[in-house]
Write a structure and sequence with these properties.
The complex is a heterodimer of chains A (about 270) and B (about 290). Chain A contains eleven helices and no strands. With about 270 residues, chain A is mainly α. Chain A has one domain: MetI-like (MetI-like fold), CATH 1.10.3720. In chain A, helix 1 packs across helix 11 and helix 3 packs across helix 10. In chain A, about 45% of the residues are buried. Classes of the chains: A mainly alpha (about 270), B mainly alpha (about 290).
């Protein structure tokens, strides 16, 4: 609608730098041949990456994070898929109330959910570990999945489902043979993004996992020791590159074949 | 029986809808509502020894909370910090969202992706890199000393409330950019043209048309930044120092080394109540202001 605004353009570029410089610093220093992160840079090296590959505790933490992330993303996407179907296709009594309740974990400070779960879990006499972490992650990821899936379900033609029903398909068949293929790109995006969220999540894991470290907890533990720091930076660089790729893929997935993609269907996130 | 169930499901939309919603609702009830309720109950208990909790109901933990100055001070500081974070984030991202919504024509989606991408990369690493930037031997200090601009490292950069606010405003930017952009982009452009045709200046149009119409996005951003940041643990721990300590650091030690679950639960309850209360007031005022302006 407006033609040009150079002041705002310059501001946007500066803000862009503000957003990216802190993220870029870690990969830069991960190739620096020095223990301390200070300028000027000393020299180029791969040795921190070598150290990273050969840390067995890191491997264990990585496996824990992948396990938790896979279970959490599959469960939260499945739960959110059913809920998204209910919200977009039926007139639900207490619609706002149920919708609000499901989105609530997204807003409540994570530390409060974490300590409340500690009280419940230890109150039942159970050991803290990866199971309560996974449950907390499912709770925390479901709102994200719901927003992604709802925006996709609102985007396609409801007549397609009605046609299937008219042609004699039952509700279950309609869902799996018509609805599901149409929302599949969003389902994959939801799986990927919730995996990323769980993989990066620190506070819930920090409070609930006791001795079973996840990857962010491993990094937290190593950050305190200057000598260990460079290989955490190498790990950080790998995480930044991989998660960025996953996120770009899922953004792309959310837009393919989406009739409303012109409207920037980013629904909340 | 089978026939009855089939009839029930096909006749009543609500039954079917709630069957689909039940996994999500059960999750929320079991993993969120009941732990929160139990935490509330625990806040009325007493920690007797390391392993023993007396479950006689008492308000003593709340009395403890208010009688030691450290708790109310930390609570007040947490709220102040997250209020400042929300304000700074909104002020710095609004021009950006405005630019993308009204001036960018091609590749809007690319702008949005680029602006939100850093949000997806590890929260811990983003906060940590601020520690590296602001630290005594950090990027800013080492660069300034190398260039000869200063002889001694600047010590005010890190371990302060300002450092916490700056770091959080960076970490939560995406949560402001998206709702602001969505609400600005939705604005019917003919309303703006009408405003110009009626003789309003650019400035007047912004304050009397654009800004009030973008308030849903502003309120959304307030809610999703203000409430969660009040409980942030990582940032005060890494860049806050003693001056930037927040209530969440205290709650962590009460559930950890100090081992006083009831007092920790009471602190968490106070945090949740006060932040919800302030968020309600802020939303209410924002709505009032918008009614007055338009």
């Amino acid at each position: 609608m407006y033609k040009k605004n150079n002041t705002l353009l310059i501001y946007s570029i500066i803000y862009f730098a503000f957003l990216y410089i802190p993220v870029m610093l870690l990969p830069i220093f991960s190739f620096n041949d020095a223990i301390h992160m200070v300028f000027p840079l000393k020299g180029f090296t791969f040795k921190w990456y070598d150290q990273m590959i050969h840390s067995s505790r890191l491997h264990k933490a990585l496996m824990n994070s992948i396990k938790v992330g896979l279970v959490a993303s599959i469960f939260s996407t499945f739960i959110a898929l059913l809920a998204a179907k209910a919200f977009t296709r039926y007139k639900v009594k207490f619609h706002q109330l149920s919708y609000g309740a499901i989105l609530l974990p997204f807003v409540i400070p994570e530390i409060i959910i974490a300590v409340a779960l500690i009280v419940l879990w230890t109150g039942m006499g159970l050991q803290l570990g990866l199971i309560p972490v996974t449950i907390a992650h499912i709770l925390f990821c479901t709102p994200f999945c719901l927003l992604i899936l709802i925006s996709r379900m609102e985007g396609f033609d409801k007549n397609l489902e009605e046609a299937a029903m008219d042609l004699g398909e039952n509700a279950w068949g309609t869902f799996w043979r018509v609805t599901f293929p149409l929302v599949l790109p969003a389902v994959i995006a939801s799986l990927l993004l919730s995996f990323v969220i769980s993989f990066d999540e620190f506070i819930l894991a920090f409070f609930l996992s006791s001795s079973d470290q996840t990857l962010p907890m491993y990094m937290w533990g190593q950050m305190r020791f200057p000598k260990k720091l460079p290989h955490v930076l190498a790990l950080g660089a790998v995480i930044i590159v991989v998660t960025s790729l996953i996120v770009i893929i899922s953004y792309w997935l959310r837009n393919i074949g989406n009739p409303s993609s012109k409207k920037n269907n980013i629904g909340g996130i | 029986m089978k026939k009855f169930l089939r009839k029930l499901f096909s006749k009543h939309e609500n039954v079917r809808a709630y069957a689909l919603l039940s996994p999500a609702l059960i999750l929320v009830i079991l993993a969120m509502a009941s732990p929160l309720l139990l935490m509330l109950v625990t806040s009325f208990h007493t920690q007797v020894s390391m392993m023993e909790i007396d479950s006689t109901l008492t308000l003593d933990r709340y009395a403890d909370f208010f009688s030691k100055p450290v708790y109310p001070t930390l609570l007040f500081r947490s709220i102040k910090i997250s209020f400042l974070v929300t304000l700074v984030t909104l002020l710095t991202t609004y021009p950006l969202a405005y630019y993308i919504a009204f001036y960018v024509k091609k590749n809007k989606m690319l702008w949005i992706v680029l602006m939100t991408l850093p949000f997806w990369t590890s929260y811990l690493l983003r906060v940590f890199s601020w520690r590296v930037i602001l630290g005594h031997k950090g990027v800013i200090n080492s660069a300034l000393m190398f260039s000869g601009a200063i002889d001694e490292p600047l010590s005010f950069l890190i371990y302060s409330q300002t450092a916490v606010v700056l770091t959080l405003a960076h970490a939560w930017a995406a949560f402001a950019i998206l709702p602001l952009y969505v609400s600005l982009d939705k604005i019917d452009k003919s309303l703006l043209e009408a405003s110009y045709d009626l003789g309003c200046s650019k400035f007047q149009t912004f304050w009397r048309v654009t800004f009030p119409l973008s308030l849903p996005g502003v309120i959304g951003a307030i809610l999703i930044i203000f409430i969660p940041t009040v409980g942030d643990y990582v940032t005060p721990q890494l860049v806050g120092g003693t001056d930037g300590r927040m209530l969440s650091n205290m709650i962590q030690s009460l559930f950890g080394r100090a081992n006083n679950f009831p007092l920790g639960a009471a602190s968490a309850v106070m945090m949740l109540l006060s932040v919800s209360f302030v968020a309600l007031i802020v939303t209410y005022i924002t709505k009032k202001v918008s009614l007055r302006m338009s």
